Amino acid sequence: MSIPVLKFDAVIVGAGGAGLRSAIQLSEAGLKTAVLSKVFPTRSHTVAAQGGVAASLGNSEEDHWHWHMYDTVKGSDWLGDQDAIEFMVRKANECVVELEHYGMPFDRTDDGKIYQRPFGGHMSNFGEKPVRRSCAAADRTGHAMLHAMYQRNVKANTQFFVEWMALDLIRDAEGHVVGVTAMEMETGQVVIFHTRATIFATGGAGRIFYSSTNAFINTGDGLGMAARAGIPLEDMEFWQFHPTGVAGAGVLITEGVRGEGGILRNANKERFMERYAPNAKDLASRDVVSRAMTTEINEGRGCGVNKDYVLLDITHLDPNTIMKRLPGIREIGLQFAGVDCIKEPLPVVPTCHYQMGGIPTHYSGRVVTPQNGDYNTVVPGFYAAGECACASVHGANRLGTNSLLDLLVFGKSAGDSAVEDLKAGKAHRELPKDAAEKSLSRISAIDNRKGGANVHETRLAMQRTMQNHAGVFRFGDLLKSGVEKILEVEKAARELEIKDKSMAWNTARTEALEMENLIEVAKATMLSAEARKESRGAHVRDDAPDTPEFPNGRNDAEWLKHTLFNPVDNSISYKPVNMQPLTVEPIALKTRSY
Amino acid sequence: MERQDYERLRWRCIRRALLELDITLTRFLDDGFDQLTEEEQAAFVDLVALEDHDLWYLISGKEECNEDEARFVPVVEKLRKCSVRLAG
């Protein structure tokens, strides 16, 4: 079968913040640039980011990139690479000011500067006191950012392929990336994008968990494609969770609910936080609350038919207080839990929010893999940025407002690196003869299989396995059985069947293809989590507790290293954390406490 | 509505920027959309073309339709009812 070939200098997969930012660099450098997106760019999940973007502008009070660097290293529980972190925080001001010039409507101070607000974990003077570092545009920071960058791209003649799904990375015999295959949803046509540079900016994969704040679009397509092309995934055991998402829906319930007097209860109606945190009770920190909730559920005191959630009770509060102090909570309860929280408690579970790991990259945005003893061998022609990439700046735990910064800095950096490499003048490398073969046979298998697995049921099995075996608080035995279970689910995910065989707008086929990406991420997460026998940042194990020898369960002697999950044979290797910043002294190891 | 038009609409409802809309619109397509009149279905197609925050504020009742959006009113009402009823 003859497959159409579209030739571009660069293709960018994903049109959220990182994709749009890198596209600006390429198009403005005069390179022929295509951006592929499953949805219209301003409908990417970056829209959901409200908190702001961190930059030590010092508009509201004294600030310094070195303090921001310290906070980020500490937040990462020392797993972040200090060269990449220094690079990011030093580029922050430049990237925010550029965005301002693109037309981003930042909130302003009275004298016209960008207004900055405080945000958890961001401190002045190396952890001394909170500092105002977050730049926002009301509650629509991510959305405003996408608009400003989309307009800039239109002006620069970036070519958008909207409602297209990238399918597979194309690598030649020498391992160079020479493009991607993609499917136009409107026609079902598969096309080859033959390029000199391929940038992945596909976002996270939070939909691997049953309870996730991520929109349905976050199916880890970039990670799936990288894994199928034999590229290892880094630090996939690290996922940030929020303690209170609506059970079964994932929609966030603000921590303000507990602040106003909300009480967590188990199936016996017991206020269980009294046992875990006798003083702070329901106001204990996020991780303590999440762990207590998980323990209650694991020990059989969860609520509902499956005993898989706990209750957040505010029925004792004055309804006027609820309406005044917690606007929107009643609506969320009604719409996503079918519960009027004035009369009945809300079902809640710890909920996945952000993926710290991803495709391994250098801070230049170039994708790197281990080869012949060098952990950071560049994969020629391949770049990644944003949540799908692991530079690694977030390490074991991300600070709020650093995610928007990540996508600006590394989106730009990946774009710049691609421009630099392309200006070096290399022509398009020849496409392999079987460039589209892998994608076509995957689609044909899904279309023609009889007696295969149902996509919805397989996804649910994966999500429940991930939630129950590799959730916010992890147990050695559950991780072990989780590995067996997820490998079982993987078998089903490799045997998917769909009923609808039509070419145009076949959403069943698209969801099956997404499922093939999700399972790669789920497997990498479960196996990486099982293997890491310490607690660090967001990876907290019951069998690696807080002791004087290992504060917070962290074991630097054995585990100060990045995980690399090899999807080809499910093996795991490790690479050292880069503790050497670019220009300053390393931030020395310390116990992470706030 | 032709199959192709419906499937395009479906994709644009089940892959939004905000999780709240993914859930609400998926539910409505599965239970509610069929009962709309032809005119309301056309209004629904335009309604879901709104930016995510604007659409969510309308459905969640944080904002009301303005004068130019009068034809959205009956559909928004049904979306609001559907979310609450089905959630139970």
From TrEMBL, chain B:
Lineage top rank: taxon: Bacteria
Entry's transmembrane regions: none
Alphabetical UniProt keywords: Chaperone, Cytoplasm
Record localization: Cytoplasm
Pfam families: Sdh5
Family to which this protein belongs: Belongs to the SdhE FAD assembly factor family.
Protein name as annotated: FAD assembly factor SdhE
